[in-house]
């Protein structure tokens, strides 16, 4: 059930959680194929992966590019989707509907597109692991769009698990994780967010990409999980 010799495609695999998944899978002997929008992030990520890893520039919101990417990549075993941009945090009253709609493009429609064109290339025994977040189950004021997206990702996962069977489809739901995703918040606000998490979380610390990567690896290896949501949140849903 190990990942030795398996080929794993990680869209959004050049930073944070996706890069940690690619690194952990490579440590188990898998061949990692990572993709994201910017050449500089692809180059930087390849320097942090073993020789033999492949990197591609790909915008997951560009449907023809996604189709062409999978045609070029050919057969593989597991598809991991972690592409995402900084969270859209604004109240309903202040929301801009065009911006709110665009927010779903990468995380929801990008994932949908990747699975549509990637699934036909997944080999027997393979799987898809998508990404959601705990905002769907425990929203805060100002997270209407993010919470809606997270709920949609969980439902999409369950529907795909039936439609694509026997390909297994699962989703990881991270809590707060220290990654580049938070770079757009002013430093003081960002550090305040992390400090308040340290104070309130049962585990007493903020998550690392490596903590969360373990869940993706478990779901890829575990042949009996499909339609599952695995929460990795340091106990955040409890407090
Ligand atoms: N960090 C957290 O606290 C947290 C919590 C819950 C859920 N999540 C979710 O987990 C996922 C991974 O987040 P992260 O924290 O690892 O963020 P990250 O470090 O910012 O990584 C995001 C990755 O997505 C790529 N990307 C962005 N837009 C893309 C597009 N249109 N097409 C292809 N690649 C794209 C980025 O590279 P380029 O810039 O080169 O495209 C980057 O490699 C996201 O969906 C995020 O919302 C994160």
Describe this structure in words.
The protein is an alpha/beta fold and 239 residues long. It is built from 7 helices and 7 strands. Strands 3-2-1-4-5-6-7 form a 7-stranded parallel sheet, with helices on both faces. Helix 1 crosses helix 7, helix 3 (63-73) packs parallel to helix 4 and helix 4 (97-118) runs parallel beside helix 5 (144-163). It starts with 6 loop residues before the first strand and ends in a 7-residue tail after the last strand. The chain binds NADP nicotinamide-adenine-dinucleotide phosphate.
Sum up the structure in keywords.
alpha/beta, 7 helices, binds NADP nicotinamide-adenine-dinucleotide phosphate, 239 residues, 7-stranded parallel β-sheet, 7 strands
Order of helices and strands: EHEHEHEHEHEHHE
Helix count equals: 7
Q: How large, in whole angstroms, is the Cα Rg?
A: 17 Å
Biggest sheet: strands side by side, in what order?
3-2-1-4-5-6-7
Q: Give the strand content.
A: 15-25%
Poorly predicted sequence stretches spanning 5 or more consecutive residues: none
Mean pLDDT across all amino acids:
96
Total strand count, please?
7
> Main sheet?
7 strands, parallel
Fraction of residues in H or I helices: 40-55%
Bulk shape? globular
- End-to-end span in angstroms? 35 Å
**Bound chemical compounds:** NADP nicotinamide-adenine-dinucleotide phosphate
Structural class, from helix and strand content? Answer: alpha/beta
